[in-house]
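Long-time lurker. I teach an intro course on protein structure, and each term I like to show students one example going from raw sequence to a predicted 3D structure in token notation. This year I'd like something fresh instead of my usual example. Would anyone be willing to generate the tokens for the chain below so I can use it in lecture? Attribution to the forum is fine with me.
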Amino acid sequence: MFLDIVKAVQQRNPALGSYVLVLRGDSRARDAADPSRLSDEAEAWLAAHAPGAKLSEEKVLLSPYPGGMPADRAVTVLAFADARHLAAFATRWTADPEPEEPDDTNAADDAQDKPD
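-- Reply from a regular --
Happy to contribute to a lecture. Here you go:
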């Protein structure tokens, strides 16, 4: 389904180019307080790693399910100048975050405090 959305966005606005990513509503890259913009961390990452990336909101005609009546839907889109920038962003911001490693410094202290 996401490929269909990307194709619809590109057809509606060819100026976005070939390297387009549609952000989900729950994307970690979006600002939690204002989902119409990126988080400060994501903006800083883009400035450092994918200069020229553009955030926009696009309207596309989509069916809610196969065979359903199409309706206009607003989607948040990031357009990249380079495929490598899109791939790097997708790797960093769309993958599930890695779980935190347990802090082993306290484990050694706890072992010393226990009686034998």
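Some talking points for your students: Residues 57 and 76 are 5 Å apart (CA to CA). The first strand starts at residue 19 and ends at 23.
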